[in-house]
Amino acid sequence: SDLRQMLATKSVENIQFLPFLTTDANNLSWLGYGCLKGDGTLITINAIGAALQTLYILVYLYYSPAKRPVLLQVLVLLAVVVTGYCYFTILVDTGMRLTHLGLFCSIFTITMYLSPLADLAKVVRSKSTRCLSFPLTVTTLVASSSWTLYGLQLHDPYITV
């Protein structure tokens, strides 16, 4: 719905950028975890998710009147992803790589779910839910519940988180 709103209004007004950015970081992290673990479900879902989030970021950047802060945040995300990749491939022992990456992914997931708190603060200040997407909230609840059940089924504590 946020993408549809950006395209219809040709504006990013009332749309927070941080959720797009953290969700992209989350998808990229879990994609790496899925590749390392050899889990086709994680690979497929997070590759699609990363592609969609990157599209949302590009559309947001296109319609954003203040491109510099958006680009800076994207560059910080890229720096974190590249640093993480280097850390996991160079510094972490192969036997511990999956554990360390799972913890890293769990932290990113928690960050992703915390990012809408910026919207919540805005809702409280303005006393309006205009900037809060109900469909996104419901979809997030369903998706997170699905991942929790999948993690429990696999006995994978990182996916469960």
Summarize the structure.
It is found in: Cell membrane; Golgi apparatus membrane. It contains eight helices and no strands.
Descriptive labels:
161 residues
Q: How many alpha or pi helices?
A: 8
Low-confidence stretches: none
**Overall shape:** globular
Strand content: under 5%
What is the C-alpha radius of gyration, as a whole number of Å? 17 Å
- Care to count the β-strands? 0
Q: Quick one: biggest sheet? A: none
Assign the structural class, choosing from mainly alpha, mainly beta, alpha/beta, alpha+beta, or little secondary structure.
Answer: mainly alpha
Sketch the topology as an H/E string, one letter per element.
Answer: HHHHHHHH
Mean pLDDT: 86
Q: What is the helical fraction, as a range of percent?
A: over 70%
Give the end-to-end Cα distance, rounded to a whole number of Å: 26 Å
Tally of individual domains: 1
Subcellular location: Cell membrane; Golgi apparatus membrane
GO molecular function: sugar transmembrane transporter activity
GO cellular component, one term: plasma membrane
Keywords: Cell membrane, Golgi apparatus, Membrane, Repeat, Sugar transport, Transmembrane, Transmembrane helix, Transport
